[in-house]
Design goal:
Elements: H1 3-12, H2 23-30, E1 34-38, E2 43-45, E3 54-60, E4 63-69, E5 72-79, E6 84-85, H3 88-91, E7 99-102, E8 106-112, H4 113-121, H5 124-136, H6 160-168, E9 179-180, H7 186-195, E10 200-205, E11 208-214, H8 215-222, E12 243-244, H9 250-260, E13 264-268, E14 277-282, H10 283-290, H11 294-303, H12 307-326, H13 331-357, E15 364-369, H14 370-373, E16 385-389, H15 394-418, E17 435-437, H16 438-450, E18 466-471, H17 473-487, H18 491-502, E19 526-527, H19 528-546, H20 555-565, H21 570-594, E20 600-601, H22 608-617, H23 620-632
Parallel strand pairs: 9-10, 12-13, 16-17
Antiparallel strand pairs: 1-8, 2-7, 3-6, 3-8, 4-5, 4-7, 10-11, 13-14, 15-16, 15-18, 19-20
Length: about 650
């Protein structure tokens, strides 16, 4: 072995996943490695470039990886000595989705995919390392702290969570594949494949797959003259066929294709070759699946021209949410993706309304409130929103407000057609009470905070959970400042809000049994929203406001931040955070199953284990209740 290759092998053995290979294997790989010298600011590959035949390891220097979103370049990561990047050719057949540029003069090792692939397929540790890294975008899945060498995924679009969800989504595939028997004549099968524009045929015996023939087989075995066209198809088929279950994920499909070095997977009833054929998955199907990631959905939202377009995209989001939950993607990640897509849909609905009405007569902000304001709207629940427009002169006020009321009505109507029901309480920008100037909104929040309960039966706490969907960020910031300036040392407000948080019905009886609805269409069902989720939501909001925590409206993240801000009570807050995710998952699954809000759980349909898990998730609520009582003393309204 030459000295250069020996030095490269010696370098690689210090880093994962190469340290899972023998030095002899590394030496064999090293002989085909190409050394690339990159000058400062030199680009190795950029977004939309065709994929290279190699992936890369940084020998020295620094490589920056970046993406461009909304015309802005965002640095994702920087690769230093021992870091691996440019893995996309291993798992995808489309183009690069990021740019790799030298931050300083660098030396890169280019490792040919074709050379490295056999070592990956035969070494599960290497394969698992690459796949887990590609799926999760973690720096190093094997050791998240100090292990030298890490992988940087090329599967990023807008965020690592999006890529993770994309990676675990299930695939759409051909459910009516061509099938033939082993005694079929090759010429007949070739004609059939041509007529149906199909590049594969599954060979079956009693409807169970025993082999597969692809377009490549026809080219390499028939066109070259190795076999006559008049022979039977079993002479050229690949056997045994690689089989999978019908809900196989993108990750699993890529893994199997890589491991077995095949381009097609046969879907069967139970995932084995001893059961009936249900379909065929091709490499093309993987490419199509990669085009259905959340980043692509957001691009499609921006191009949508009608509520019908947006409705189709929202249905795809529901599919992503359902499959992600069944694949056990962390609910906190799913929430982020759903929130981003929901927000993009709302923004586009406002834009479509403006296209109809003409340019707004004043600057404004459309704020989502309630569940979407907290980035927790996984189901197609009702829409909640407010509209705030900048102050205008008295002579223009009526015309300006009339425009924005029309904008509110058009937008809410579009969102209703998408699937977001109108708020039964009228908490929408189409309501003249919730569509007004910044000064009027300032007065409204002042009244809510300084004289709670005087002008209404109760304070509508969802107005304190908001997220801007469209418009001027400074208007949202102005409202946030009004809130935090008024709540400082405001005992009256916190007493009222604290009592409101404690006013919810208890989820369990004295004997630790679920308290269910006693009458109506939901008789004997458990109200998981009112009795379980809302007390946690209210508690998280109450303590976040009292600790002056700004910019975090999500309940789970509020509890996580409270654990940092109040370390003495961190265990209670962390327990509440996990409880909220568990309860949210129960509600989401119920809603997806019944195509509704998931508010009422049929306990009889739960397994004994699920009922216990649900009951255990309610345990932290008692501690939270006691914490509220002790913290705020509730002197004004007790």
């Amino acid at each position: 072995m030459n000295t250069i290759a020996e030095n490269i092998a010696d370098f690689l053995k210090e880093y994962s996943p190469f340290n899972n290979l023998t030095f002899q294997e590394l030496s064999e790989i090293a002989t085909s490695i190409r050394v690339v010298n990159l000058e400062k600011n030199k680009t190795l590959f950029k977004i939309n470039d065709d994929l290279h035949d190699s992936f890369y390891v940084v020998a020295s220097g620094v490589i920056n990886l970046s993406i461009i979103a909304d015309a802005e370049e965002t640095l994702l990561n920087k690769c230093i000595e021992g870091d691996i990047f440019g893995l996309r050719p291993f798992f995808a057949k489309n183009k690069y989705m990021m740019t790799a540029k030298a931050r300083e003069e660098s030396i890169i090792y280019a490792i040919p995919i074709a050379t490295f692939r056999p070592f990956v397929a035969n070494n599960s540790a290497v394969l698992d390392f690459l796949l887990e890294s590609f799926a999760s975008n973690t720096s190093n899945p094997g050791d998240k702290e100090n292990l030298r060498g890490k992988l940087i995924s090329d599967n990023v679009y807008y965020s690592d969570q999006q890529s993770e969800i994309q990676y675990f989504q299930t695939l759409t595939y051909n459910t009516i594949p061509l099938v033939a028997t082993a005694s079929s004549i090759i010429q007949d099968i070739a004609q059939l494949m041509t007529n149906t524009l199909t590049n594969s045929v599954i060979i079956c015996e009693n409807n169970n797959p025993i082999g597969i023939v692809t377009h490549t087989d026809m080219c390499t075995k028939i066109a070259t003259g190795r076999f006559p066209i008049s022979t039977t198809i079993d002479k050229i088929m690949s056997s045994p066929v690689v089989t999978v279950v019908e809900n196989v994920s993108l990750a699993e499909a890529q893994l199997l294709m890589l491991k077995h070095n095949v381009t097609h997977l046969c879907v069967t009833h139970d995932g084995s070759d001893k059961s009936a054929v249900k379909g065929i998955i091709s490499e093309h199907d993987l490419i199509v699946a990669q085009a259905s990631n959340p980043g692509v959905l957001i691009k499609e939202i921006k191009r949508s021209q009608s509520s019908k377009d947006l409705k189709l995209i929202r249905e795809r989001l529901t599919d992503i949410i359902q499959k992600s939950i069944h694949k056990n993607i962390p609910l906190s990640h799913v929430n982020k993706i759903a929130s981003e897509i929901n927000s993009a849909i709302i923004k586009r609905a406002v834009e479509l309304s403006i296209l109809d009405l003409g340019s707004p007569p004043a600057r404004f902000a459309w704020l989502s409130i309630g569940s979407q304001g907290r980035k927790e709207q996984l189901l197609l629940t009702d829409q909640d929103s407010i509209l705030i427009f900048e102050d205008v002169t008295a002579d223009k006020y009526r015309d300006v407000k009339d425009y924005f009321l029309k904008l509110g009505k058009r937008t809410t109507a579009i969102l209703e057609k998408v699937g977001y029901q109108l708020c039964p309480n009228g908490h929408m920008a189409s309501n003249m009470l919730w569509c007004k100037s910044l000064t009027d909104w300032t007065k409204q929040y002042n009244n809510w905070i300084n004289t709670p309960g005087e002008n209404s039966n109760d304070i509508s706490s969802i107005f304190f959970d908001f997220e801007i969907a469209f418009g001027e960020q400074k208007i949202e910031e102005a409202i946030e400042n009004v809130i935090f300036n008024n709540i400082h040392n405001n005992t009256l407000f916190f007493d009222f809000l604290g009592n409101d948080a404690l006013r919810k019905n208890s989820p369990l009886s004295f004997f630790k049994k679920f308290i269910v609805e006693e009458e109506g269409i939901n008789k004997d069902k458990f109200d998981i929203k009112t009795r379980a989720l809302m007390p946690l939501i209210d508690g998280a909001r109450l303590f976040s406001l009292s600790h002056n925590i700004k910019g975090i409206n999500n309940t789970y993240l509020r509890f996580k931040q409270l654990a940092i801000a109040d370390s003495k009570k961190s265990e209670i807050y962390l327990n509440c955070a996990e409880a909220f995710l568990t309860l949210s998952k129960f509600r989401t699954l119920e809603g997806l199953k019944n195509d509704n809000s998931g508010q009422f759980i049929n306990l009889q349909e739960l397994t004994k284990v699920d009922r216990e898990n649900l009951k255990n998730a309610l345990a932290p609520m008692k501690e939270l209740e006691e914490l509220i009582k002790n913290k705020f003393q509730l002197t004004q309204f007790s």
